[in-house]
Each structure stands twice: as C-alpha cells, then as structure tokens.
Amino acid sequence: MYGTLRTFDSSLSDEFRRLEREVDQLFGSGSWPNSIRAAARGAYPPINVGSTPTQVDVYLFAAGIDQKSVDVSIQQNLLTVAGERKLEVREGVDYYRKERFDGAFRRALTLPEDVDPDKVDARYKDGVLHISIQRREAVKPRQIEIK
Amino acid sequence: MTEKKDVKTQESKTVQQAGQDERVIRPPVDIYEDVAGITLQADMPGVPKDRLNIHVDKDMLSIAGDAFIDTPEGMDALYADVIVTRYQRSFSLSGELDGTKVDASLKDGVLTLHIPKREEHKPRKIEVRVG
To answer: Which of A34, A41, B33, B56 has the highest CB neighbour count under 10 A?
Structure first.
C-alpha cells in the first residue's frame, strides 16, 4: 500500500486558492471569454467595458489619481491606460491598514474592431475615468431599401 | 497643547440597511493613527457626495456609498470587473475615539475620515517640577 505523504497538508495559501476558485465558480468568471491581454483577477484599476451601436465606453475605477499622470493611448483597437497613483504616506504615524493600491499601473484591452481611434473622449469624475470611443459610421447597421 | 477644532459631524440616521443577500464591495482602506486621532481613507470610485452615507452608532462606524456610473442608453456589457455598485464597510471604534466629531471629506472617489480622540485621552505632557 502506498501511504499518502501529504494527506492533511492544507496551508493557508492553499485555502485562499481554494476559496478563490470557489468564488470564481460562484460568480461565474467564465461568463466572459478571456482575452489574451486579460489581467488576473484583482488587477488595478478594475475596468468595465460597454458598447452601443454608436460607441464603446470604457470605465476605469481609479479613485484619487492625478489626471496628469494618466496616459491614455489607442492604437487601432488596442486601448492602453497607464499611470501612477502615488499615495501620500505620513511619517511618524502608526499604520494599521494599508490596503489601497499604491504605484504604477497599466492596463491594455482590445476593443471591437470598428472603433475610430480619432474619436476618443476621456473624462475623470468621482474617481472614475470614462473613455468613450466612437465607432465608425460605415459599420453601423443601415436599412437597405428594396426597389 | 491641543485645541478643540470645530469639526463637522456627518451623522446620518437614514443609512439604508442593506439586505443580507445583497452583494457589496468592501472598499480598500488605509488607516493610521497620530496623537490627534485616527484617519481612515477608503477608495470608493464612482460615488458622488450625495450618495455617500457615513453613520456612527455608538461604537460602530459604517461607511456606505452607491456608485453612479453614467452609461449611455441601451449599453451592452462587454466586460466587467465591477459588477456591484454598492460599497459598504464598518469598523468598531474604541472608547477613546469621539464618534460624534467625525470629519469626512470626499475627493475623486477617495473618502477621508478623521476620528478625533476624546480630549481626556489625548497624550499630555507631564511637567516635572524641580523640588
């Protein structure tokens, strides 16, 4: 008989990994196909992307960032947002928690192919960076008249 | 010497009790302490001032907020990291903190709370007299 070497080996990190898997199953991380550039869960800042027939809207949930430090660029249909969030760290005080993101970030995402890289609008409000990209006219659905 | 600051109290009695099954985002926080009290900073992107609720009940500090995202009509979600728009988190305050004098400010989705220590709990310098 072969004895099992690590029958009850369950370290804390294993437990976390198990929990993460279960949460993924519960909340259906599989409901969206993974993009090749998709970042791992928990990447900063979180992003939502929505589309309408006329435009694609990207929302980055990045509170307290300096607008000037953010670089938004679009190449064809690849949107890249890079920046830095520098938190003011107080000297001579006792920190109990430091959970907020601090440092440089970069996220890239592939948008639908019909976006027009010349028609991009970005606004920052209440800690959310909202980028709207217009879609090209030609691909909008058109009514074809039957003669 | 510590002077008594005139701080605004943002106490709200109308904080909505979220249902147990309602999913919320637990906002990440930084908390530090100095001689004057405790400072808490929380990331709540998308929450405007009028949708923020800070509630102190005895020794329980609750922060809650609803994100308002301006979406065009008929939008389809292509991808979403954020699927819940309600933030909620609470903390218990210890007795030396004065929950009635909490000062709150919100800027670009970052909530900053100052919770002062009660006067009698602030460190005092004891003078040693030369005998």
So the answer is: B56
Interchain CB distance below 8 Å, B77 and A49: yes
Residues 6+ apart with CB under 8 A from B96: B117, B118, B121
**Nearest Cα to B98, choosing from B7, B32, B31, B30?**
B7
Distance from C-alpha of B95 to C-alpha of A19, rounded to nearest angstrom: 35
Q: List pLDDT tens digits, range A52-70.
A: 989 999 999 999 999 899 9
Contact between B45 and A127 using a beta-carbon 8 Å cutoff: yes
Cβ-based neighbours of A130, under 8 Å, separated by 6 or more: A57, A58, A59, A60, A122, A123, A124, B70
Q: What is the pLDDT of residues A17-47, one digit of tens each?
A: 666 666 665 555 545 555 555 555 568 999 9
Residues in chain A with CB shorter than 8 Å from the CB of B89 are: none
Would residue B13 be called left, alpha or beta, if left means φ above 0 and alpha means ψ between -120 and 50 degrees?
Answer: alpha
Structure confidence at residue B10 (pLDDT): 36
Q: Which residues on chain B are in Cβ contact (under 8 Å) with A64?
A: 43, 107-110
